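User: two proteins, same treatment. go.

Assistant:
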Amino acid sequence: MKWIYKAQSRVEDFMITMTGKSIRKWWALFTLPTFVAFIIGFVAPFLIGVWLSFCDFTTITDATFVGASNYQHIWDDGTFLHSLLFTVAFTIVTTIIINILAFAVAYMFTKAMKGATIFRSVFFMPNLIGGIILGWIWQIIINGILSNWGKSLTYSAKYGFWGLVILVCWQQIGYMMVVYIAGLQSLPTDVLEAAQVDGASPSQTMFKVIIPLMMPSITVCTFLTVTNGFKLYDQNLALTAGNPAHQSEMLALNIFNTFYGRVGFEGVGQAKAVIFFIIVAVIALIQNRLTTSKEVLA
C-alpha cells in the first residue's frame, strides 16, 4: 500500500508543478483584460474627476484650471453642510436599526420553526425592488397616513428623515439577514455546547460567545449599511426630492442638484463629489478597522 500512496503523492506534486507553470505562463491572458477594464472604467474617470474639481467647465474639452476656488464655493449656500449632517444622522440611525433587527430576525430563523424558508424569502424580497419604485410606494403610504393630520413628507425635514429611515430599513433588513444567517449557521457547535455545559445563561451565551464569533459578519453588514447610507440617492429623490427647501436632501442628491441644477456650478459639484468620496472612504476605513479589531478566532 505504501507504493500506492507514494505514487499518488508524486502525481499530486506533478499536478501542482504543472499548474504553477501554467499560471506563470498564461496569467497575463486572464488578468490583463480585467486590469485594463478596471483602469478604463474606474481609475481613469476617477482621476479625471479629481482634475475637473479644480476646473471651470461644462464639458471635459473646455475645462479651465481655476485652482481651489471650487472647493471654496462648496460652503457658500450652506446646503452641503446641512446635507452632510443630515446624511451622518441618517446613516447612524439606519446602521443601528438595520443591524440589530437583521441579527434578531436571522437568529430567530436559524431556530427550528415552521415556514422559516418562506419567511426568509419574504424578508429578502424588498431588496429586489428598485429604489425609485420603493420611494414612490412609501411616499403614497406615508403621505396617506400623514394626511390625516394635514401633513406630508415635504411639510418638514423631520417627516422626510423618518420616512427615509423606514424605507431603507424595510429594504435592507432582509439582505443583512441573509448575511447574518450564513454567519450563524457557520458557528462552531462545540463552542456553543461547551458554553451550555458550563452553565452559561442565554444572555451570556449571546454576548460572550455568539456575538464575538459573529464579528466577521457584523463587519460586513456594518460596512454595507454605512456605505449604503452615505451614498443613498434614488430613494431620497423619489420620496422627498430634498424638500422642503433642501432640508431633507442627502449628500448624493445635493451633489446631483449642484452639478446638473445650477449652470456654471459643474466644477463645484465635482468638488463636492471629491469631498464626498474622501468622507465615505475615511469613515468606512475607520468602521472596518474598529469592527475587524474585535473579531476573534473560533
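Protein 2:
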Amino acid sequence: MERLDKVLSNLGYGTRKELKQIIKKKMVTVNGLLAKDSGMQVNPEKDKIVINGEEIFYRKYIYLLMNKPQGVVSATFDNRDETVIDLLYAEDQAFQPFPVGRLDKDTVGLLILTNDGELNHKLISPKNHVDKVYFAKINAPINEKDIKAFKDGITLDDGYKCMSAKLEIINNFEDSSEVKVTIQEGKFHQVKRMFIARNKRVEYLQRIKFGELELDESLEEGEYREITAEELAKLTSVFNKN
C-alpha cells in the first residue's frame, strides 16, 4: 500500500502540493469513489485510479537504456555540468532514476538508468562478475605483453590491483590501435588508468555492452529508450543462475 499522492507524483501528475489541490477539486477517483484525502492508502497495482477522467497504469520501476554523449556527467545532480538525468523527459524523471555505475564525462556509450536499487547493486557489485565491455582507441600499438598484463591484473597508480581483464586487438596501426576491453569492476577512470599503467593513453572510449545488454546502435548519442522485457530478462539471467 502507498499514499495516493506519492503514486500520482511518481507518475508525473504533479507535486504532492499540486495533487492535494487536484484531489480537493474532485478530479480523482479510486475504485469509482471520489478521493477525499491525498494521503489515503491505495494499492496501485490493484486499485482503479482515475485522474481527470484518465485511468492510470502504475509501475514501480523504470529501466532505461541511454547512449550517453560526451560532456555529460553520470550523476543525478551537478552544480556545473549537464547530467544524464537532464536528458530525460519529465515523465521519466518523475520516477527518480539514477545511472547504474558511471561513465566518465568524456566517455560515451551504453548507460543503464533505473530506480531499482536492488538491480543496481547486483549489476555493479564486483562479486557478481558482470562484464562491462568497451571499445577504445589507443595512442600506440598493443602487444602480447599488454594482453597478458591485463589478464594478470593491472596495478593502478594508487596501488590497487584490478581483477583480471580481457584485452582484444581489433586493429593495430603503426602509431595507434583499436581494442576491446572487458572488465568486471568500475573504479574511477579505470580503463584509462589501466592503459596509463602500460604507458599508453586512451583517446576515445565507448561502452558497448553491460552484462547481456548491448548498446542500441540506432540510438544517437543523447538518445534513450526503455529496456524491453526480453532485454531485462537477459540482464538479470546471470543472477537467476546463482
